[in-house]
Each structure stands twice: as C-alpha cells, then as structure tokens.
Amino acid sequence: MTVQPPPAATDDDGAGTDGLRALSPARDTAAARTPSAPHTLPSPPLSSAPSVPSVPSAPLFSATPPLPSAPMLSSTPAIPSAPAPSSETPSREAPSPETPSAVPPAPPSGETASNRFLAKAALVTIALSIAGALLGLGRDQALAHLFGADSATDAFLVAWTLPEFAATLLIEDGLSFVLVPAFSMAVARRAQGAVGDPVRALVATTLPRLTLAVTAVAALLIAGAPYLVEALAPGLPDPALAVDCTRLTATCVFTFGLAGYCSAALRAHRRFVAPAAIYVAYNTGIITAMFVLGGRWGVRAAALGVAVGGALMVVAQAPSLWRQLRRHEVSADGSAVAEARPMDLTLISTVLLFALCRQSQVLIERFLASSLPAGAISHLNYAQKVAQMPMVLSLMLCTVTFPVVAQAMAEGDTERARVRVERDLALVSCTVLLGTAAVVACAPQIIQLLFQRGAFTAQDTSATAAVMRVYAVGLLGHTLVGALVRSYFSSGRPTWYPLFAMTAGIVATSWIGALAVGSFGVCGIAAANAGGITLSALLLLYGMGPRSVPIRTRRVVAELGKPVRAALVAGAAGALCASRAHSPLVGLVLGGTVVTAVFAVLAWALGIQALAPVLRSLKRRLPHVRFR
After folding, report:
1. Closest CA to 466 of 393, 537, 366, 376
2. Whose CA is closest to 427, among 403, 405, 396, 402?
3. Nearest CA-CA partner of 197 in 327, 337, 65, 59
4. Which of 70, 242, 283, 443 is the least buried, fewest Cβ under 10 Å from its Cβ?
5. Exposure class string for 525-548: b at 16+ Cβ within 10 A, else e
6. How much is the average pLDDT of 51-61?
C-alpha cells in the first residue's frame, strides 16, 4: 500500500511551514485587498459585501491610532471596482463564453486554507517539540552519567530552579499571553495599510524596555545568589558550588526573555518552525557543554550549558524575526512608524502572577514529599515527566492557534474566535484523553522500559507507575487550564479571573495534599495535584463569556463527556491486555494498540465531532490508495 507523503516543512522564506504565505489567512486577505497598481487604495466595496467589524478601542500595544477609513480584515474580502482604462493601464475585456478563460481555478476557501496551514504548523511544532523532549531526556541521562547523584548534582538541581521558572514565565505561558495579542493587533493593522509599520513601532517601544527589565532581574539574581540558595536549600552540604551554578543559570532570565519575545512575534506572523526549535538548541547547548567541559569544570559545566543554551534560543529565532521586520516596506511618503503606547502593567502583572501561581504546584509537591521516605520526590518527578507528554503534545495545537484567536479578537470577530476555541477544546481533549488512557493502561511497562536499570529497581518501577496512574487523572484538567487561559488573555485586556481560578486550585492542592500525604504517601500528593488543577479548569470553564471568548459552555461540556467515556473503557481494556504480556515491550505495544482501537471505535459510535474531520479525510483518501 503506497500513500504519497506530504511535502516537508522548512523554515525557508519561500516554502515550508515558515514560508507558507499562500496558506496564511492573514496574508491571503491582505493579498486579496492589495491592488495591482502601487501606492493606490482600493475602491470602496460593493454594497452587497458584508459589513466589516470595527477595531476594538485601546489595544495593549497600540502602534498607531485607529484608522476608521482603512478597510478591515474579514472572512469575505472587499471587491475593488475595476480601474478605468488609461495609457498606463491597458483595458481588459472579459472573455466571451465561447473563448476558454485563461484565469486559473479558484484557490481553496479561506477556512480550508487556514485549516491546512494550522495542521501543517501543528505537525511541525509537535515534531520539533518531541525532538526537544528527547534531547531533554538525553540531557538528564548525560547529567547522571557524568556526575552521578551526589551533593554536586544536588547543588546543580537547586540552581536548575531558575530555568524551570523562567521558562514558564518568559517563554511558555506568561510573556506569550501578553505579546501574542499585541503583535497580532500590530500585524492586523499592518495588513490594513496603516501609516508606517505598526509592528516596527511595537518592537521599538517594547523590546528596549523588556531588555532593560530582564537585564536588571538577571543582575539582581546573580548578586543575590547566596541568599537565594539559602532560601531554597538551607541544608545543602556545598552551598558555594550551588551559588556558582546559580549565578550561571541566572543568565537565563535575560536570554529566555529575549527568546520568549522572539517566539511571540514570530507566532503572530504565522511562523512556527523557529519558535518550536528553541528547546532543541537549548538542550544541545547543555549536552555539548557537559561533555566538552565536564572533566575540567565538573557540574558547573552543566550550569554553563544553561547559559549557552539560552543564547542559542535567541540565535535560532533572530534571523527569522529580522526577515519579518524587513519584509514590510515603508509607506510612499517615507513617514516613520507612529508613536506606540507603553505596556499595560496591569495585564503584565495578571499574566505573570498566574504563571507563577501555576508553577508553584511544583514547590508544594516537593515540600509535601520531603517528609516521606527517600525516593518519594524522584518517583513523583519521573511520573510527572512521563505522564505530562500527552498534555504537552495536545497543547501544541493551542500554541499554533493562539495567534489566530488573538487576531480575531483584535478585529472584533468574536464569532470566528468562538468557533476556533470550541474546536481547539474538543480536539485537545480527545488527544489528551487518548494519551491518558494509554498512560493508565501501560504505566508499569512504560516506566520499566524507560528507567528500570542500574539503581532504579523493580520496586521503584511499581511505585512510580502507581503515582503516574493517579497523576494522569488530572491531565484533562491541566490541558483545559492551558487551553482556556489563552482565551482569557487573547483580547489583550487585563483580567484577574484566571489568577483567582488558579489560586483556588493551589489552595485545594495544598489542603488535599496535607490531609492525604500521611495516609496515601506520594499517591496522595498526586491525587491532590489532580484535584486542584481540575477545580481550576472548572472555574475557568465556568467563567468563559464576558471575561473571555464567549463559548457555548454547556455544549462544550456535553461534547467533552463523550471522549471521557471512551477513554475510561479504552484504558480498562488496554490495562487488561497489557497486564497479560510477559515482556514490557510486548505489553506496551499490545496495550497501546487496544487503547487506540477501542477509543477510535467508541469515538465513531458516540459521534465525537472533534474527530469527524479526520474520519472524513480518511474516507476521501482511501479510494485513492494504491495497492502493489
């Protein structure tokens, strides 16, 4: 059976996912509105064309004042009137019915092109994210191979707290929630033909201030490294080594800030390859530094690798961003970019506090597990890293579609934003629930294949697998929180509700964990995590409406119930089959196959709408498959 593979995606300007100008909805609309003659505005649209929504007032980073006369982007572009014949513009007669038309066939509709573009971008993003995750696993294995598990590695892991928090605040969640809507608004105004270049105005206003802020924070952390180490690990045997490592890893605040800025700007421009490749560059830098300098510097080489890897994150994205900034030509009168407004500190505060509150789950879990026997923290850590993979992969779709929702909100098209968010929630829920069923069914086999060697015994495998199964119960909640919070911040307006929802979840996690850790040990901590994040997800889902994209909550909840039921049955069937295999590899393959097959059959029987496009695509492609 031969199926033609799709074309490879590259980061080139002319082709691939990063160069899919023909598939980008923003570029298609802008191209449709651009007349053939340079520096001329299109005629007013025909009276039959639908009205265009106005620009919402007071954007977060408004590069230029609103232009009421500029035509807005919409799903149906305005039709310019035909230019009058002149000496410069030869007249064109319409072809007669008898004469074959030389006009090429019409391109796909805007929605179809947008879906194809998002699908390719999501696939490339997922592939590069998997590559970065595999390199992260290799990084941990290299650390254990070169430096073992002693006081030196403990010192490095204390310093590793800074990159963990900085990645969440500056790259993955916090900063992107502020900058993606701002750049989406600027890109939309650039496509309208605003005077100057709103994107360059936004960069000129925000980048220097951000650079100054992250530089000051990094310098403060470097100077206060001894006090930070004392607060994080007061009983550390070698605090001097931890201070040295912390001063090296503190540079990530500067480099991660610039990397997160570049990622947000590129995603708003529908460029996803370079932002998705940053963790490949980051982990490559750490691994290289450990092997090259580990013999001379010891574990300090790993901390230096964090500094080098952070710089590589910026280098991997800077050329692509520079091309986007240079691509737009200045207007005919040579006017410079308009004055941009300062950052909204309230929005920045709400976003960063939410991300910090969410990341504090790790501190609560480690604090509760510190009172348990040795190995409890390791069991929880390994279980989380493996179980979170379905969540990470499913949220890649929201990472790709977040700029689409932000641009729709910037244009005032709440209906398009609602449809996109509802589709994303349905699809990511199906994806993470399928992964959850596989994790629950094959947890012992997965842990045994990945970790059971050397000092990691069969008892460790059993304990870690039990924790992972409990932790997997909260994967849907983690995924919904990650997807819904993007909707709250997509409009670029400050809101405290996500912070309230996350704080309620953190309080629930703390109380449930404190009550359950004595009786159930590390499994009680995992259950507290699942309960707290599920509460936050329910609160965020309940609050969708005037504070966010107005989705149809009851319909979304009813649709979510279908894959939940399918995952319960598929997980039970897969666990039963996997447990009967003597080899862990055979058990994993058998259990995973059963989970996938049962989930697919139940998805079809229950009529899960999120998978309907996939089934229709397969149905269309099957008649074209050739057998040899």
Report:
1. 376
2. 396
3. 337
4. 70
5. bbbbbbbbbbbbbbbbbebbeebb
6. 38
Q: Is 626 helix (H, G, I), strand (E, B) or coil?
A: strand
Q: What angle do CA 527, 531, 533 make, to 5 degrees?
A: 120
* Range with lowest mean pLDDT among 24-28, 107-111, 474-478: 24-28
Question: What is the three-class DSSP state of 538?
Answer: helix
* Distance of alpha carbon 519 from alpha carbon 260, whole angstroms: 42
User: Could you give phi then psi for residue 299, rounded to 5 degrees?
Assistant: -70, -15
DSSP strands (E only) in 482-574: none
Residues of the chain with pLDDT > 70, as a percent, come to 71
Type of residue numbered 595: V
Q: Is residue 414 within 8 Å of 430, Cβ to Cβ?
A: no
Residues 6+ apart with CB under 8 A from 365: 380, 513, 525, 529
Residue 43 has pLDDT above 50, yes or no: no
Rounded CA-CA distance 355/174 in Å is 5
- Alpha-carbon span 267 to 275, nearest angstrom: 8
36-42-48 Cα angle (round to 5): 125
Name the 3-class secondary structure at 350.
helix
Name beta bridge partners: 2: 626
79: left (phi over 0), alpha (psi -120 to 50) or beta: beta
Whether 156 contacts 304, CB under 8 Å: no
Q: Within 579-611, where are the H helices? A: 584-606
Tokens 């190995």 belong to 375
**C-alpha to C-alpha distance for 403 and 114, rounded to whole angstroms:** 12
In tens, the pLDDT along 185-240 reads 787 777 777 677 788 888 888 888 889 999 999 999 999 999 988 887 776 777 88
Does pLDDT of 82 surpass 90? Answer: no
| DSSP letter (8 states) at residue 160 | T
| Six token digits for residue 9 | 């995606």
